[in-house]
């Protein structure tokens, strides 16, 4: 999944604010633990602080008992990528938006690959919905495919 390829650009600065070594992978368990419980935001510069707060507010807020290890952050991140594509941004622009908004580096090729995989999953959903006579679900899948492929 795309969340497994997301890396914090300034992971070493985040490490200094946390006080111990963490992986640079944004959705790694140790990183999520550090961000949700041990991060001293006063030790971050203004831009990085805003990026981390945006990351936290966009992906780490849920009511699951196992938060942040519930899977919601990764799902929300994938949804964010798809929503950005559906607004008309290409894979390069999506990578730049994610970098600016959250301080996360993604290769544009990884974004493109994820979007292609998403279309294949939606095509399977469309086909199954058609077989099961679920017209509303089938139409929704068709609409999302169209928006991603535009």
Give a quick rundown of the structure.
This protein is mostly helical.
Protein traits:
elongated, mainly alpha, 150 residues, two-stranded antiparallel sheet, 7 helices
What's the SSE blueprint?
Elements: E1 7-8, H1 11-18, H2 29-38, H3 46-60, H4 72-86, H5 91-102, E2 104-105, H6 108-131, H7 135-149
Antiparallel strand pairs: 1-2
Helix pairs in contact: 5-6, 6-7
What can you tell me about this protein's structure?
The chain is mostly helical. It has one domain (2-106). The chain contains 7 helices and 2 strands, in the order E-H-H-H-H-H-E-H-H. A two-stranded antiparallel ribbon has the order 1-2. Helix 6 packs antiparallel against helix 7. The chain starts with 6 loop residues before the first strand and ends with a helix.
Principal-axes geometry comes out as elongated
- Percent in helix: 55-70%
Number of helices: 7
Percent strand equals: under 5%
Q: Which structural class matches the secondary elements?
A: mainly alpha
Count of individual domains: 1
Between the first and last Cα atoms, what is the distance in angstroms?
22 Å
The string of secondary-structure elements, in order, is: EHHHHHEHH
């Amino acid at each position: 999944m795309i969340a497994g390829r997301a890396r914090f650009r300034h992971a070493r600065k985040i490490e200094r604010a946390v006080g111990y070594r963490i992986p640079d992978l944004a959705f790694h368990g140790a990183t999520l633990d550090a961000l949700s419980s041990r991060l001293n935001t006063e030790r971050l510069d203004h831009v990085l602080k805003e990026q981390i707060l945006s990351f936290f507010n966009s992906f780490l807020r849920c009511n699951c008992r196992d938060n942040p290890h519930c899977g919601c952050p990764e799902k929300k991140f994938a949804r964010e990528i798809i929503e950005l594509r559906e607004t008309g941004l290409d894979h390069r622009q999506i990578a730049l938006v994610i970098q600016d908004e959250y301080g996360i580096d993604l290769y544009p090729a990884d974004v493109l690959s994820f979007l292609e995989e998403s279309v294949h999953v939606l095509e399977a959903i469309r086909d199954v919905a058609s077989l099961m006579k679920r017209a509303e679900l089938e139409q929704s899948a068709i609409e999302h495919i169209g928006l991603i492929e535009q």
